[in-house]
Amino acid sequence: MTDLEEPLRAVETGLAALGDALRRRDSAAIESHAAELHRALAQAVDRFGTAARRGAIPPALRQRLTVAGGQVAAQREALARATASLDRAIDVLIPDLAPAHALYSAAGGAARAGGQGASLLA
Fold first, then answer.
1. Which of 10, 19, 40, 70 has the fewest C-beta atoms lying within 10 Å of its C-beta?
2. Taking the domains of the chain in order of start, what are their residue ranges?
3. pLDDT tens digit sequence for 16-28
4. Residue 105 has pLDDT above 70, yes or no
5. Is the Cβ–Cβ distance between 71 and 15 less than 8 Å?
6. Is 116 helix (H, G, I), strand (E, B) or coil?
7. Which of 96, 101, 87 is nearest to 122 (CA)?
8. Which residues lie below 8 Å from residue 43, measured CB to CB, with a gap of 6+?
9. DSSP 1
10. What is the rounded distance in angstroms from the CA atom of residue 119 to the CA atom of residue 103?
11. Three-state secondary-structure class, residue 58
């Protein structure tokens, strides 16, 4: 096993654990696994950077690192979509927190702020 195998395996394991936590929507596990993955990625980048300067990255490990990079990007995109969806739901449920022009015309926003629908904010 090369000195690159261990950090790459830690990244792959971290990606799998984070993906599982995201699917389960377990916020505590997401936070924990994201922190672990961040540490594993930092270590892998350091080790692979050193190896790249020496020209010593085996093609199979380079391919696995590329796949892991794609998985990181996919998880980041999935999290961004989930965050945007949550933001939209919050804007619908609590419209006064959003700028009036984002959801209503100027007249509609003014009418709502003037008391219509106030029972939703109680």
1. 70
2. 5-121
3. 999 999 889 888 9
4. no
5. yes
6. coil
7. 96
8. 7, 10
9. -
10. 18
11. coil
Q: Read off the tokens for 111.
A: 């009418």
Give which of 22, 33, 17 is closest to 80, Cα–Cα. 22
Reported confidence tier of residue 118, pLDDT bands at 50, 70, 90: very low
pLDDT tens digits, 52-104: 999 888 999 999 999 999 999 998 898 888 888 888 888 888 876 545 555 55
Pair of tokens at residue 15: 């990606």
DSSP state of 4: T
pLDDT at 110 over 80: no
Contact 99, 43 (CB under 8 A): no
Do 102 and 108 touch, CB atoms closer than 8 A?
no
78 Cβ contact list (under 8 Å, min separation 6): 22
CA atoms 50, 56, 59, 60: torsion sign = negative
Residue labelled with tokens 């085996």? 58
